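Re: the request from the purification team.
They wanted to know what the chain is likely to look like in 3D before they choose a buffer screen. I agreed to run a prediction and write the result into the notebook, where they can find it.
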Amino acid sequence: MSASHGYIDNKDDYLKRLRRIEGQIRGLQRMVEQEQYCIDILTQVSAATKALHSVALGLLDKHMAHCLVQAAAAGGEEADRKVREASDAIARLLRS
């Protein structure tokens, strides 16, 4: 039996949001193919980026509320590892 992930209860919502983002990316490709105005493309890139950040923050929140809390309750090296993972994920999000 595999371990349950914190986002599993919202899996369908995440998939729906990611499919919507996928559509945004296809729209961006069409805009470039059709040689649309640069600023219009950049506006859509910004919207897609914001949508991805929203998904990432939601997943991070679920990770901290589920995986991190469970590991902290257990303590030890697993808790330290989960805190490091969360910290690294936050750092990657801040750099993106």
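For the purification team: The helical segments are 11-33, 38-74, 76-95.
Please add any questions underneath this entry.
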